[in-house]
Structures are given as C-alpha cells and as structure tokens.
Write a structure and sequence with these properties.
Strand order of the largest sheet: 5-4-6-1-9-10-2-11
Number of helices: 14
Number of strands: 16
Structural class: alpha/beta
Order of helices and strands: HEHEEHHEHEHHHEEEHEHEEEHHEEEEHH
Mean pLDDT: 91
Low-confidence stretches: 1-16
Distance between the termini: 36 Å
Largest sheet: 8 strands, mixed
Shape: globular
Helix content: 25-40%
Length: 490
C-alpha cells in the first residue's frame, strides 16, 4: 500500500510539473534600446525579431540603475538599490544574502523548477568571500541556484580561473587574448577591432555552448529556469571573425542626438569614428542573436519550446555617442532604458506596451508563471497582467537611480515625461514629442506644473518603497484579545 501511494505521489508530482513552463531568460549587457531589429533597419537580429513577433514588446522598460551590479542585484532581489539594504550603488561593492533575504531563484526553486544561471552573474566584486560563505558554491546555494557556470567576461589576465579561461588555456590562446584585452582596457575599450579569439572560441559563443549542453542534460520530467547572461555587446568593441566586418560603417545612420564632434577621455570623436564603433557594436549584437538562435534550437530539441516562457532584456544600455557620451551611467534613454521581450505561447499576447516597467519585474513575472509564491516585500511587479491583456499599467512610474555621494541621482518616467535630478539641477523631457531628449524643459515656465508633478511622483515612489520591518506587527493588547477569543471559540 505504501509503495502504491509513493508511486501515485510521484506520478501526481510529475503531472503537476509537466503543466508548468520551462523558463529561458536571456540577458545581454549594455544593449542600447534604440538598436533593436524590430525598430531599426541597421540591426541584424532575426532570432530576437521572431521572439518579438511571437510575444510582447515593452517599449518603456527601465533599469533600476544604469550600472551593471546594482541592476543585476535588483533583478535578483526584486528590490531597488535604495532599499536593498546592501549599499549596491556601483560595481565596487558586493551582494551577499543575509539569512532573512529572498532571491528570485529561491522563489522559483520552491515552485519545483531546476534553477541555473550560465554566464555573467556580477553580484559580487572580486574573488573575496563574505564571512558567511566559504566559497562560491556556498554563495550560489544560498541564492537558490542548483547549477551555476559563472563566466565573468573576457579575461584580461592570464591568471583567469573560470571555465572560459580554462578553455583558452587548453587551446593555447589565453595569454594572447588576455594581453589583447588588457591593452584595450588601458588604451581604450571603444577602439573597434576584431577579437584575437575566433568566433567559436569567443566568450559568448563558449557560454552559449555550456547553456546548450545544460539544456540537453535536463530531465524533461522537471521544468527548469535557465538564465543565460552574455557579456556582449558590452565593450571592448572586439566582435570576432565575420561579425567584425558584418556592417559597413558608411551605410549606418546615427541619431540626431549624436553631435558631429565630441570628446571621450581627451580623444576627439566625430561621426565617422562613431559609425566605426557602431559597426562593431552591431556585430556583437548580431553575435548575441546567433547565440539566441542556438538556445532556441536546443529548447525545440528538448520539446518544450511551445511551453517556454522566454524573456530577453539587458542590465542597462549604452550611450554610443548620444549627447556626446559613451558607455552607461546616465539617465538618457540610450543608457537607462533597456529592451524587454516576453514570449509565452497561449498566455502572452502579441503586441507592444508603453507601460512604464522595470527590468527587475522579470523576477515576479517568472514566479507567477510557474505558479510559485512571491516572497513578501518585493517591489518588483509581475508583467503578466499587462502581457495577458488584463491591465494596461502595473505602476505609475519607472525609476532609475545611481550615485556614490549625496544627494543620489534619481530618475522617474511615466511613459510620457521623464524627470531626473543630479547633484546640481533637475531635467525634464517630453518623450512623446522629443524622443531623442534634445530639449530640456526643466526651466521652461510653461512646464513648471509638469516638473512639480514628476517630482511629486518620485517622492511618492520613495515613500512607498521603503522596507518596512514592522509590517504585520500586532500590538500586545490585540494579540492577547485574539488569543482569548480563540480559546472561547474552542
């Protein structure tokens, strides 16, 4: 009898798991949202374009911080940098979970899925470990991860120890690649030239290979959540092989917000040089897209593609010459806004949404899709009410924040207007009529009311997103009365 019950329990568990989707999250690094194939003819991303066609495009998705680590920690925790409690404002610190913390992977794991992340994690800075964790294995286990392959990015040191560095070492290329990358970082990571590594030995291609192997090895009886985090198109501009020459700079179009002449680290740049940078940047995007194609084929071979929740996004954007800037760390659209696609056949509608959302909303979206329970106190919100057509909005504004000194720089966008304040002044842009943010309205008298309204929306957001450690507390008198009432009811 006991044996029969165990068999029945295992069968029910298998059937329950079979109804849940697989989850594939694709995270690029430093992807400018203006360069997406569904909007820009210069971009070559057929695989992502197909995902966009079969799902929903979120046109107003913003990172919680236009810097790698705080953005990634927000995704992991569902919290904003200002309330994460770990002072993750830049890439110099690190996130180490406390015993009371909750993470995306823990909630997904409790819902019955195998959890994995392959590629760049970037939740910590450097190899040193917090006193609560003996090593990386203990750290990842605490996060709720069943499997991890942490590929931090292209190695600029021959002492690299991750799986990719070992691969380069095995083929006798580690020193050459590391020296080349070190030279690029010292002299300028925006100088476009082909990688020393062949395409098949390039870090993103290698990372994708690990992910494909992982997919093939997973039991079809248990759903999985796999996060594949690639380094491209993040500089250095070192697209490999044919990707380095795939785009002709002369044929590319720059937005009007890119000045004809500007400076970067004391070097004079112009449209011709910017187009050469852009050509290599687009080559790295095309490489990411081909990596996506390999992952899609692996999921199809697994047999779950039509019941796979697919999400594509980036941690933050890249200025690529707009307003005379390169890299990230700014609140202009090119840096603070990110692409976001959500595809889930039979559940997510096709189309586009202009609702203000956050990149970290990926976390509760997955938890809801796999019928899990979201840990209380998360400020991220599920995208499914919008993606399934139930609602048009899940929050009034999207917010981004960054800073290494007071006052913190903070941005708010309601989909129409964008407001931000830095250490010196305030800014206001009408994105509907000025999508390239070329006309600052902050000091225009006619827009004073709008400025005040956006400032008030940001203040309300800050008042509404504080971690409340007293939530659920009942005064002693109330507890005693409830206890007495319970006794009498027995």
């Amino acid at each position: 009898m006991r044996h029969a019950l165990l068999v029945l329990s295992a069968l029910c568990s298998s059937l329950f798991a079979a109804n849940k989707p697989d989850v594939l999250v694709l995270i690029a690094d430093q992807w400018n949202p203006r360069y997406v194939g569904w909007d820009n003819k210069d971009v070559r991303t057929p695989h992502l374009d197909q995902i966009a066609k079969e799902g929903m495009i979120f046109d107003s998705c913003y990172t919680t911080s236009p810097v790698c680590m705080p953005a990634r920690v927000s995704l992991l925790t569902g919290l904003y940098p200002h309330n994460a409690g770990h002072e993750i404002w830049g890439n110099a610190s690190g996130y180490f979970p406390k015993s009371e913390d909750a993470t995306m992977f823990q909630d997904i794991q409790r819902a019955g899925l195998t959890t994995a992340q392959i590629g760049k994690t970037h939740w910590t800075a450097g190899p040193s470990w917090h006193e609560d964790f003996k090593n990386s294995g203990a750290f990842f286990k605490a996060l709720g991860l069943d499997h991890v392959e942490d590929i931090s990015g292209p190695p600029d040191s021959a002492k690299g120890r991750d799986a990719y560095s070992q691969h380069l070492r095995d083929i006798g290329q580690l020193e050459a690649v590391a020296n080349d990358l070190h030279d690029r970082y010292v002299k300028g990571e925006f100088e476009p030239r082909a990688s020393m590594a062949k395409t098949e030995d390039y870090h993103d291609w290698f990372t994708t290979g690990l992910a494909v192997e992982f997919i093939h090895k997973q039991s079809k009886e248990k759903p999985m959540c796999l996060v594949v985090s690639l380094h491209s198109p993040h500089p250095p501009l070192d697209a490999p092989g044919d990707y380095a020459t795939m785009f002709d700079p002369e044929t590319l179009t720059l937005p009007e917000s890119v000045p004809e002449h500007y400076l970067r680290d004391g070097h004079a740049l112009d449209h011709a040089k910017t187009k050469r940078m852009l050509a290599n940047y687009l080559g790295k995007m095309a490489l990411v897209d081909d990596c996506v194609g390999r992952l899609v084929e692996a999921m199809k071979a697994r047999g779950t593609w039509e019941n796979t929740l697919v999400i594509f996004t980036s941690d933050h954007g890249e200025m690529m010459g707009a307003h005379g800037y390169l890299t990230k760390g700014r609140f202009y659209e090119e840096s603070a806004r990110v692409p976001l696609l959500v595809r889930w056949p039979g559940h997510v509608k096709t189309g586009r949404s202009k609702a203000p959302v956050q990149m970290m909303d990926v976390y509760p979206t997955i938890v809801e899709a796999v019928e899990g329970e979201l840990t209380p106190g998360r400020f991220a919100k599920s995208l499914l009410p919008i993606a399934t057509g139930q609602r048009q909005l899940i929050r009034p504004i999207a917010v981004s924040e960054i800073g290494d000194k007071a006052p913190l720089r903070m941005m708010a966008c309601d989909g129409h207007f964008k407001y931000w304040a830095d250490e010196e002044r305030e800014y206001l842009f009408d994105l509907e009529n000025d999508p390239l943010e070329q006309h600052d309205l902050a000091e225009v008298p006619e827009h004073r009311d709008t400025l005040n309204q956006m400032r008030e929306k940001l203040l309300t957001h800050l008042r509404s997103t504080q971690v409340n450690l007293s939530a659920g507390y009942k005064p002693k008198v109330q507890r005693l009365r409830e206890a007495e009432a319970k006794k009498k009811s027995r």
